């Protein structure tokens, strides 16, 4: 998610789930080629497994971005063909590429030619007046022939004109069944689903039909939903989340970031929704939202925020 799932967010989420595949925010190929590569591509080793999501429509530029990113050690490269924002459309990439499946296929082929990790595609079921029953298979046939290793499908159309990015996440109706049918028609292809999934119980239901679940805003707005992921989906032993340890790790991480010239707010902003719905959560949010932005704010703000939360209630909420 652009401007949201940066390296600080991913480090935080990794403290809650050891196994979930984390995605970067979408990074434009041109930015990697011409921009501040270290800032755009570097990440903490503890973030693994982590996928780099790219935006672009020029096969040569995407291939060059993959080459540049290779030494950083990402576990997957993903091409975004689903983002509907205006600034993405103006660059001729994101969801508007669903109108040109041949270009998407050429991009995938170019990326595959230089990548040493899986190359995947994230898309919508269609855009604008497209018939998803025709548009989605047409796109998938082309990108799979080009070598795509997996497909992630946001189970909504995107409307390129007339709806904001927020409205595109809410107004077009969800059609999970078309994603299920896509998997049935391609039993040997990894098909993952995205869109509107709020709980791990819903995720488990989807896994009866597809191979993977992608959580976006549900995980960002209340990261505690990740606390039972390792046990529920990866076979890890059931254990209570040690929120005190997570607090200490985030304080140490924030201290390192500040020592390197960063600000506490850059880390803390991703933690605001952690204890949504629990006793003390309102005070927790207030502390992180107001005190973390003050000049000279340090890790002690994180400690104060965590001190306001009923941790017993947080444990009881795990797995909801």
From TrEMBL:
Its EC number is 1.3.1.91. It comes from the Bacteria. FMN binds at residues 53, 122, 154, 194-196, 216-217. The active site is at residue 83. Belongs to the Dus family. DusA subfamily. Belongs to the dus family. Catalyzes the synthesis of 5,6-dihydrouridine (D), a modified base found in the D-loop of most tRNAs, via the reduction of the C5-C6 double bond in target uridines. Specifically modifies U20 and U20a in tRNAs. This is tRNA-dihydrouridine(20/20a) synthase. The lineage of its organism: Bacteria, Pseudomonadati, Pseudomonadota, Alphaproteobacteria, Hyphomicrobiales.
């Amino acid at each position: 998610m652009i401007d949201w799932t940066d390296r600080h967010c991913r480090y935080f989420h990794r403290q809650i789930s050891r196994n979930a595949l984390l995605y970067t925010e979408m990074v434009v190929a041109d930015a990697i080629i011409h921009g501040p590569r270290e800032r755009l591509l570097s990440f903490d080793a503890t973030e693994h497994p982590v996928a780099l999501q790219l935006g672009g429509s020029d096969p040569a530029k995407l291939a060059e971005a993959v080459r540049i990113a290779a030494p950083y050690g990402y576990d997957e490269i993903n091409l975004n063909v689903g983002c509907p924002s205006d600034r993405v459309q103006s660059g001729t990439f994101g969801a508007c590429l669903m109108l040109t499946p041949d270009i998407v296929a050429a991009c995938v082929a170019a990326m595959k030619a230089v990548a040493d990790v899986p190359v995947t595609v994230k898309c919508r079921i269609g855009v604008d007046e497209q018939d998803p029953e025709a548009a989605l298979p047409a796109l998938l046939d082309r990108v799979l022939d080009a070598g795509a290793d997996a497909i992630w499908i946001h189970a909504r159309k995107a409307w390129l004109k007339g709806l904001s990015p927020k409205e595109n996440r809410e107004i077009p109706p969800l059609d999970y069944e078309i994603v299920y049918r896509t998997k049935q028609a391609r039993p040997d292809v990894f098909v993952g689903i995205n869109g509107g999934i709020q709980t791990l119980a819903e995720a488990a239901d989807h896994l009866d039909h597809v191979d993977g679940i992608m959580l976006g805003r549900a995980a960002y707005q209340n990261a505690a939903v990740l606390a039972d992921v390792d046990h529920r989906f990866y076979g890890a032993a059931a254990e209570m989340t040690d929120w005190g340890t997570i607090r200490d790790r985030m304080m140490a991480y924030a201290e390192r970031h500040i020592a390197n010239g960063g600000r506490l707010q850059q880390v803390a902003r991703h933690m605001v929704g952690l204890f949504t719905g629990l006793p003390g959560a309102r005070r927790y949010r207030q502390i992180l939202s107001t005190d973390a932005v003050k000049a000279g704010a340090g890790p002690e703000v994180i400690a104060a925020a965590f001190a306001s939360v009923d941790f017993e209630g947080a444990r009881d909420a795990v797995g909801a």
